[in-house]
User: Fold these one by one.
Assistant:
Number 1:
Amino acid sequence: MAEIIPAILEKNFNEIKNKLTALREQTKCVHIDVCDGVFVPSVSWPFGLGHLGGFEDFDFQKIMNEEEGMPFWEDFDFEFDLMVADAIKNFDLYLKLGGKRIIFHLGEGDDVEKLEHFLEGLDMYVRDMVEIGVAFKPSDDLSIVSRLSHKADFLHCMGSDKVGFQGEKFSDKALENIKFLKKDLPGIVISVDIGINLENAQSILDAGADRLVIGSSIWKNGDPIGALQAFQNLV
């Protein structure tokens, strides 16, 4: 059965708490977008508070120091989407957020080689504890995606080349990519993120998507929980 995963992209940690409060008892997995304003133009927690952003963020530091966990960590499985330039360098820090899944994005040139070597060298204990995903845009080279898929637990298909934002239009090319990869890589798990709404969700599921990550179609609805339930009723 496919999985519906609500996505949260917020600069303010209190807003993350508020949305997680609303999602309690509605879903098990929640997707948290982490944007640094470098790898992508947008910024989100913990980078969203100017000079207090990044690793100086008070709430982030409390989690790093193991004084607290993510809000309602007992209730949710978190997946963290690392749209950041330092994902590999500071992986050990992001690991402390306690995610069940962590998603890395394809870079360009040497960055792809670094990601491949990083995935190959991950400690087996980490691989047993955390699922690793590789995200790719509609315009990315699928031969590279296929190569990296053998070193990841799942692929994360972005619905638009404009990543780090919610409310973007879903690309027809993304739909073609899902169909191709499902045929080319039997058994691969594909999650899909960006541009999913109630009008196109079924076609994305029919193409082979295993997980739908949904942000603005939930949070910009006047009844976010009702919208989430409408998506859940599709699977």
Note: The domain at 3-232 is CATH 3.20.20.70 (TIM Barrel).
Number 2:
Amino acid sequence: MFGDSPLDRRTLLRGAATVGGGTLLGVASTPSPAQAAPTVYTRADWGARPPKSPATVLDQAPDHIVVHHTASANTTDYSLGAAFALSRSIQNHHMDSNGWTDTGQQLTISRGGHLMEGRNRGLSAIQAGDHVVGAHTANHNSHTIGIENEGIYMTANPTAALWEKLVETCAWLCDVYGLSPSAIVGHRDYNATACPGDVLYARLPELRNEVAAMLNLAQTRYATPRASGMPGPRHTFDHGPAVGPADTVR
């Protein structure tokens, strides 16, 4: 089990060895410095509503990073203002249509490459190496952190700006939480859904290896992911099951 602090977890990550000729976590020849945190626009920056209740924060690290798509339009407005409007729209949908206490995901990346805090207490939890419980992956919210990527990626690729920010964000989270890049997964790995879209999901091996390179870790050969065969989103912000019977937080 990882140690009590982000530093302890990073030390374990970088000191991991190989077993049976296969890389477990990827070993760096020398420890790399802590991954710099990307710029994160806070809830105050994008004008979040107050949550119905404070988010639950667990004194533990999540064990997986779940990649989602927002199932919203592939807009060509890459401005910061559009990114902030996206966060407000997601929060309104999650609170008013879904009846949740707040935005479901912990982090959101716009097509312009802007990274925003999602659920309340989310950024402070990450900075402390803790986990704020969200509502993004049914029956697995207690141990996973979710990143919503603006757009729908069934047949289209994310923008270069979004992709670069996703790599940077995942590297930061892996570093803070002491996670291997192999802990980066898609929503469909847990639930019956097409999320994060066939194209983005197929690029998860590439994402893991780009994150490994940022962390000075060995890269890994991954099997090529297959299409889900699931239907795409039915409406805006429909990326599949987000809460389930095992989830006590909404």
Note: Confidence is low (pLDDT under 50) at residues 1-31.
